[in-house]
Amino acid sequence: MKVLVLGGYGVFGERLARLLVRDGHTVTIAGRDGGKARKLAEELGCAWVAMDRRRDLHLLQGQEVVVDAAGPFHAYGDDPYRLPRAAMAAGVHYLDLADNAGFCAGIANLDAAAKAAGCCVISGLSSVPALSSAAVRALVGTGRPEVIDIAILPGNRSPRGLSVMDSILSQAGQPFRVWRGGRWTEARGWSGPREYALPGGLVRQGWRIAVPDVSLFPAHFGAQSVEFRAGLELAVMRYGLLAFAVLRRWTGLPVNRPMLRAFKRAADLLAPFGTGRGGMSVMVIVAGERRWWRLLADDGDGPFVPAIATRALLRRKVLPVGAGPALEAITLEEAEAALSDLAVHTERGHEPAPPLFPAVLGPAFDRLPAEVRATHLTMDISHWRGEASVLRGSGWWSRLLGRLFGFPAAADSVPVEVTKSVTPQGEVWQRRFGNRCFRSRLAAASGGMTEGFGPLTFRLGLQVQDGALHFPVLSGRLGPLPLPRWLLPVSITREYAEGGKFCFDVRILAPVTRDLLVQYRGWLVAA
């Protein structure tokens, strides 16, 4: 095919041009800097042209495909789809490597025009959402994933273009919507770090950013939770960006060209450190299994990965007609074939992924009523609401402990909201009784489960009796120090079903005195 690559001498555009020349396409490298375009074209033995996408659109004539690898796509102004419209008018297929969620999703508005012109118009034909969606589909098959978790984790010696830096810096500290537990919540750019395993035992840290996957995958795959993270290999860069995100959150500091160049110079100074190894992780939880596809690029071949989806699509004899984001525009098999001549290793795997309570209770979990089991099947985050009555102990010791633990005030009826969040260690429960909020940490332990409140951790002997789940306290510690039995609270707690609802009755007696500390009883339903 005759392919014009706009931004063809940039970080990803250059890699795409190299791959397309290798595959036998007739490539033209285009960009505003004719000198850079000519230099690379002479090296690759292909054509070049100086082109400004704002005014030189007549240069599309005679091409079969135009690929926009320039960006930054979030900064394309009041007429962001000028290039794809011009391509359709010239009868040219349009593809791009966009990583901006709004731009990528918005191109679907050109679908009718693309079909009328007989053109293929696809946005996001890059690592996200093209490669990531291909991996998700391969992992879930015809199933419906409960959780999708994706990360891109480049090596520090990978080259950095200004457009990619602009995209990440512009998001730092800024709010965006993320789909968690079947509802939209707010997250901040470069927050919520998490560690990811890559092939070869490599572990890298990723931080939340907004990409097309975050907004497109919930509806496309029917997932209950979708998260995406990106990483930087060097800690000084990761936490430096975190400091910048905090600064932007509280000051609204704008990202401008001089700032971008300053960050670029700082990144270039750190370029000799770290490695050229980078990777990608796609994980889903479906049908009680955790399944993953992971990629590791060696020898500095990581920057080729964003070009792989375009390469794979252009290996087809016929391109699909219509416009839309690159959701499953290629298959994972096509992508892996397009990676085969690079220093890239991929792997797939799976393992059981039972939620915390079924894992701890084993077969006894199935003896619980359905209403109780449902509250303990959280795979990422779940929300519950209901009502409760609260009784508080009247003695000075009980009042003091109740205040320290943040237990709710006495009330005949108070609205209750409970949010359960899965963590690498177990679960975090946040309970809100009216305006009073307190939380605890739960984790599997030998012979049962632990629940932590600040520096205090208690071992619970979960028991299923008479269709109810009981939570007796077996032991405890303050930090690493074990507590004597007389310093342990007594938990007379049960979860049960009544009237088709999940019900709870939590009665805690104070250590030492064994007087009532707090008792709250009520019901919850899924929010």
Provide a brief overview of the structure:
The chain has 527 residues and is α+β, with helices and mostly antiparallel strands.
Could you characterize the architecture of this molecule?
The protein has 527 residues and is α+β, with helices and mostly antiparallel strands. Helices cover 28% and strands 36% of the residues. The chain contains 15 helices and 29 strands. It has a 13-stranded antiparallel β-sheet. Strands 3-2-1-4-5-6-15 form a seven-stranded parallel β-sheet, sandwiched between helices. Strand 27 (490-498) and strand 28 form a beta hairpin.
Secondary-structure content class: alpha+beta
Fraction of residues in helix: 25-40%
Oligomer: single chain
Distance between the termini: 53 Å
How many whole angstroms does the radius of gyration measure? Answer: 27 Å
Uncertain segments are none
Helix-strand layout with pairing:
Blueprint: E1 2-6, H1 11-22, E2 26-31, H2 34-44, E3 47-50, E4 65-68, H3 82-89, E5 93-96, H4 101-106, H5 111-117, E6 120-123, H6 127-140, E7 147-153, H7 162-171, E8 175-180, E9 183-188, E10 194-198, E11 202-208, H8 212-221, E12 225-230, H9 235-251, H10 257-269, E13 278-286, E14 289-297, H11 305-314, E15 322-325, H12 332-339, E16 344-352, H13 356-361, H14 370-375, E17 381-392, H15 396-405, E18 411-422, E19 427-433, E20 436-445, E21 448-453, E22 456-460, E23 463-465, E24 468-470, E25 473-478, E26 481-482, E27 490-498, E28 501-509, E29 516-526
Parallel strand pairs: 1-2, 1-4, 2-3, 4-5, 5-6, 6-15, 7-12
Antiparallel strand pairs: 7-13, 8-9, 10-11, 11-12, 13-14, 14-16, 17-18, 17-29, 18-19, 19-20, 20-21, 21-22, 22-25, 23-24, 24-27, 25-26, 27-28, 28-29
Helix pairs in contact: 1-11, 6-8, 6-11, 7-10, 11-12
